[in-house]
């Protein structure tokens, strides 16, 4: 429900950004965060809890596209990428912190109420601090409030750059007004698609947001404990602790992005990121194929040891000797595998899956499996997960938001950013809701292989369709999109020309 709310919030957020400004939209998002947290913490039952989740989702959707946009428009070009990447680091760092906070509240009275209610504190803090910050100077300029915009820009930019920035921004706004006439507040999908710069920007921006989700990141973030169990780690506690490591690596990768984004550029970082993601997913697919095709056998003798708890499907099987752990688990949700007390890789027992049987299995110093099976290659799955996060986070984790914050013409920036963020959240929902079903239907190995193939397609998409915007003023990005069509590597060449154009412009100014 939170993700569903985020889809709506992102869609509404685009309109709010253009109508009322970036700062006002963030304040509205903070208000929704706070209300959602209070409602969830005080919910007497599931219905009100769901209402609170929707409120939080609305805030998440608005903030997800507004924050990078606001930071981008209020940042000098040479450090714009690093500052937007910092936003990504604080998001992933916040996720890691939330794991620790939830862990601390597990033994507190009212457990989950504290976990959900504490989210109101950062929302309230940001609301107060946002009151001290200015509106986006580019949005003010577009709305005709030039003196306010100039005053803010003089505080942001060095003295030797301010005049050229103001001139470039003024020319951009005047060009838009000449093209659109007096109907500056009427924006339709048809108009967006007919405008060449917007259409090309949307192809790159929306494509990146969709691929960010369809390469499988949130299967790892949402289901990392499950994936760890599928790899053969039976303990819930072990799975949760390893998922904490995953969140930590995600935050660490965002720090790497801050350092490299304005040095190597957006496009190179994306290519390196996706190349690593493809390798990692290939490793995960191979490991899970090995764990599922070579799982321990089911022993009639071991199962008979728990004669009152034999899984009915196994008891009724014609050829029980051919059963292994994976076949036992797939036979029915009511079946579990109790590993051998001597060695977890030796034949074990196929039993009914419930708490009583689980406790009985544990009492004999055996491991109990209901998701994945014992494997000597499970540690390779952990390496694959770690590599996936390490490669994904600095590139595909942050760059799509950076590109979307700087690629659209000023007049369409809020609406287009909202469209791209909405596409991201819809893709998020599709992937999150389909992952477990896919693993059940075709197996974990094939599921990760599908994500790997999508990652290869994403790599080709980046090479052909995504611009290099490193160090370019936002107005120069628009000119780059206007002058040439999409084809392989044209962005890099155009980038050089735009930089040259920018230098000439600065000299003439």
| CATH-defined topology of the largest domain | Growth Hormone, Chain: A
- With strands numbered from the N-terminus, the spatial order across the biggest sheet is 2-1-3
Q: Spell out the CATH superfamily of the largest domain.
A: MFS general substrate transporter like domains
CATH class bucket of the largest domain: Mainly Alpha
The radius of gyration computed from the alpha-carbon positions, rounded to a whole number of angstroms, is: 26 Å
How many strand segments?
3
Domain Major facilitator superfamily (MFS) profile: 1-470
Main location: membrane
Protein name: Major facilitator superfamily (MFS) profile domain-containing protein
Subcellular location: Membrane
Provide a descriptive summary of the structure in words.
This protein is mainly α and 509 residues long. The protein has 2 domains: 2-285 and 379-501, Growth Hormone, Chain: A (Up-down Bundle), CATH 1.20.1250; 295-369, no CATH class. A 3-stranded antiparallel beta sheet has the order 2-1-3. The protein has 24 helices and 3 strands. Helices cover 74% and strands 2% of the residues. Residues 486-509 have low confidence and may be disordered. Its main location: membrane. Keywords: Membrane, Symport, Transmembrane, Transmembrane helix, Transport. It is a multi-pass membrane protein.
């Amino acid at each position: 429900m939170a993700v569903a709310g985020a889809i709506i919030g992102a869609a509404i957020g685009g309109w709010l950004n253009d109508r009322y400004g970036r700062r006002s939209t963030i304040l509205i998002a903070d208000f929704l965060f706070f209300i959602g947290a209070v409602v969830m913490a005080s919910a007497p039952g599931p219905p009100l809890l769901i209402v609170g989740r929707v409120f939080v989702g609305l805030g998440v959707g608005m903030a997800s596209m507004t924050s990078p946009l606001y930071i981008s428009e209020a940042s000098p070009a040479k450090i714009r990428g690093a500052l937007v990447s910092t936003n990504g680091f604080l998001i992933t760092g916040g996720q890691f912190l939330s794991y620790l906070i939830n862990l601390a509240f597990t033994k507190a009275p009212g457990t989950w109420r504290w976990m959900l209610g504490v989210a109101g504190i950062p929302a309230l803090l940001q609301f107060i601090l946002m009151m001290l910050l200015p509106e986006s100077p580019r949005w003010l300029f577009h709305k005709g409030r030039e003196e306010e915009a100039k005053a803010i820009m003089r505080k942001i930019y060095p003295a030797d750059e301010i005049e050229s920035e103001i001139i470039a921004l003024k020319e951009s706004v005047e060009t838009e007004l000449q093209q659109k006439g007096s109907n500056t507040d009427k924006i339709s999908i048809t108009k967006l698609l007919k405008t060449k710069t917007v259409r090309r920007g949307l192809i790159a921006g929306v494509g990146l947001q969709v691929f960010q989700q369809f390469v499988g990141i949130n299967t790892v973030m949402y289901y990392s404990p499950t994936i760890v169990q599928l790899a053969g780690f039976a303990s819930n506690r072990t799975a949760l602790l390893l998922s904490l490591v995953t969140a930590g690596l995600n935050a660490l990768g965002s720090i790497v992005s801050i350092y490299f984004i304005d040095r190597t550029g957006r496009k190179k970082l994306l290519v390196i990121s996706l190349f690593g993601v493809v390798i990692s997913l290939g490793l995960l697919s191979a490991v899970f194929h090995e764990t599922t095709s070579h799982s321990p056998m089911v022993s009639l003798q071991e199962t008979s040891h728990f004669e009152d708890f034999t899984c009915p499907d196994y008891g009724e099987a014609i050829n029980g000797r051919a059963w292994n752990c994976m076949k036992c688990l797939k036979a029915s949700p009511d079946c579990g595998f109790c590993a051998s007390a001597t060695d977890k890789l030796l034949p074990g027992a196929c039993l009914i899956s419930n708490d009583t049987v689980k406790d009985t299995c544990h009492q004999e110093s055996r491991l109990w499996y209901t998701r994945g099976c014992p494997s000597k290659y499970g540690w390779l799955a952990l390496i694959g997960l770690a590599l996936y996060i390490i490669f994904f986070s600095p590139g595909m984790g942050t760059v799509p938001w950076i590109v979307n914050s700087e690629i659209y013409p000023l007049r369409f920036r809020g609406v287009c950013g909202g469209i791209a963020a909405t596409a991201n959240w819809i893709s998020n929902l599709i992937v999150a809701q389909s992952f477990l079903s896919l693993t059940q239907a075709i197996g974990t190995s094939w599921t990760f292989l599908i994500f790997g193939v999508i990652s290869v397609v994403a790599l080709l998409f980046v090479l052909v369709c995504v611009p290099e915007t490193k160090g370019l003023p936002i107005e120069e990005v628009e000119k780059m999109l206007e002058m040439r069509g999409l084809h392989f590597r044209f962005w890099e060449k155009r980038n050089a020309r735009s930089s040259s154009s920018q230098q000439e412009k600065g000299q003439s100014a």
